[in-house]
Amino acid sequence: MAIELGKLGIWRHYSGVDARFAAEAEKLGYGAIWLGASPSGDLSYVDDLLAATDSLVIATGIVNIWQDEPADIARVYERIAGKYPDRFLLGVGAGHPEASKEYKKPYAALVDYLDGLDAAGVPVAGRALAALGPQVLKLAGDRTAGAHPYLTTPEHTRSAREVLGAGKLLAPEQKVVLGTDAAEARAIGRKTVKFYLGLSNYVANLRKLGFTDEDLEGEGSDRLIDALALHGDAETIARGVRAHWEAGADHVNIQVLNEDPWPAYRALAAELL
């Protein structure tokens, strides 16, 4: 992999990341920030984030294929990668059907999109693919630097590594809540996780991981929330992150759900970096 993400990164909605945030994350030792929630295709603010840091990688998690044409994204990629070599990773994906009226035959659309990126000169090593199921995971391994699974568990990471094989990036996202009051932490986790329980692709993947109808109904069982939004003190959460590494992840990007994320960022950097 030409782009070095380090072992630990941050996943955060793109609206919550500015140059000051990026500089502080780099100072703590995080290797990458993943800009979440389908950022707009011009990515004009990425230049500012990279300019404010020395080695931090900025990745998109994700550019939505229904939102921006590959030729347009390729020009954006060329602009950023030309100024900041090996510090920008273009994460792309198909999102989910409930959010995109254009959503149809997503696998074929992903193949076409990657063909478009090829034609426009975006290198395989400079892009990653959001992937959950084995077909798209294999596509990620064949046509990109690797896979960026979202809303998963170490069990998924283990099976994803088997599909990808060695030498391909596996960078799962993991939600965390720093706090030892289990009821309070679960309530924070549910605020975010419940949204995904209405999205068919995530629900299907969670079923494959062994979660039942009872786990998935309403706002999710305690068992589900505990798996998808790790909570506890920093040492406890760190064990959960390490479980992804032990299952084959190269890089884990944490999404802190606490209102003020910085205590968690600092505590987890001290535990894991």
UniProtKB/TrEMBL annotation:
Keywords: Oxidoreductase. GO terms for molecular function: oxidoreductase activity, acting on paired donors, with incorporation or reduction of molecular oxygen. It comes from the Bacteria. Pfam families: Bac_luciferase. The keyword Oxidoreductase applies. Residues 20-116 form the Luciferase-like domain. This is F420-dependent oxidoreductase. It comes from Amycolatopsis rifamycinica.
